[in-house]
Design brief:
Number of helices: 11
Order of helices and strands: EEEEEEEHEHHHHHHHHHH
CATH topology of the largest domain: Jelly Rolls
Shape: globular
Number of domains: 2
Largest sheet: 8 strands, antiparallel
Helix content: 40-55%
Length: 271
């Protein structure tokens, strides 16, 4: 696995690039949790299986694809040889890269050619044929910068509200955002959800949850009540509710499913 930061002007829109090669003799299923990240997967090898969150026994095998924003977990599987390049966009970055509102992509994985058109194949081939990972990262920088520069951006109040939610890890009150922007609350929620795929309150909850998951991954030995307080939850009960809703597990079961290699493993597709 190879990780790299994007070019400096893109770092508010792209968190990182991840290149990987993996071989699994038996299928590996991972529980991917909702975050502020939207991945774009450029696949160089075997298919990646994305299970339907509503019907765990059903799946779609994908080549290159992206997703919208998620407010639930999704199980992703692989077997045999896999490899490729993943761009970890922020939600706003994905909106700018694709140049379209994200409302129709919420909780979905979508083939890349459906989002980029015919250029998706040519982009994939340029990346696949590059001689080094550094060359691939440079190609990605140029393509992302070009698309972001020519695509229309969401309204400034939506971008500002997104940045406030992100900077506060979801702790800012929606009423505070509405008062500052000057729109009606109904209009603000509609515009925000239309552009970025999640309502602002839902995104705030996802950001708080993602912060808690990062702390758990860091290995800090915190009581759940202390973790909840550190991440902006009213109490431990609200924290537990969000873990069950977003991860489909209790906090203890989520920790026990953590893999030493990162992520959370799924032993049985039980939802």
């Amino acid at each position: 696995m190879v990780r790299a930061l994007p070019a400096a002007p893109l770092r508010g829109l792209v968190r990182e690039y991840v290149g990987w090669h993996e071989f699994a003799a038996t299928p590996i299923n991972r529980r991917e949790l909702p975050t502020e990240i939207i991945p774009v997967i450029i696949n160089f090898a075997g298919p990646i299986r994305v299970f339907d969150p509503q019907r765990p026994g059903h799946w779609t095998d994908h080549d290159s694809f992206s997703t919208g924003a998620y407010d639930t977990h999704v199980v992703v599987g692989s077997a045999g040889a896999t490899g490729g390049l993943q761009f970890n966009f922020t939600i706003l970055g994905a909106r700018l890269f694709f140049g379209r509102p994200l409302r129709e992509l919420t909780n979905l994985a979508v083939p890349l050619h459906d989002l980029m058109g015919p250029s998706a194949h040519e982009f994939r081939e340029r990346l696949r044929e590059a001689a080094t990972w550094d060359e691939r990262f440079a190609i990605a920088d140029r393509e992302i910068a070009s698309r972001v520069a020519r695509n229309p951006a969401p309204a400034a109040p939506v971008r500002w509200a997104w940045s406030q939610l992100r900077q506060t890890a979801g702790r800012i009150a929606i009423g505070t955002l509405v008062d500052e922007i000057g729109w009606s609350q109904k209009h603000f929620i509609h515009r925000f959800r239309d552009e970025l795929g999640l309502a602002p309150k839902t995104l705030g909850r996802v950001l708080r949850f993602a912060r808690a998951v990062d702390v758990l991954k860091g290995g800090q030995a915190l009581r759940f009540a202390d973790l909840a307080a550190e991440c902006g939850y009213y109490d431990q009960a609200h924290f537990t509710r969000d873990v069950r809703e977003f991860a489909g597990l209790s906090p203890g079961d989520l920790i026990r499913s953590a893999s030493p290699a990162g992520g959370f493993l799924v032993s049985e597709l039980d939802g």
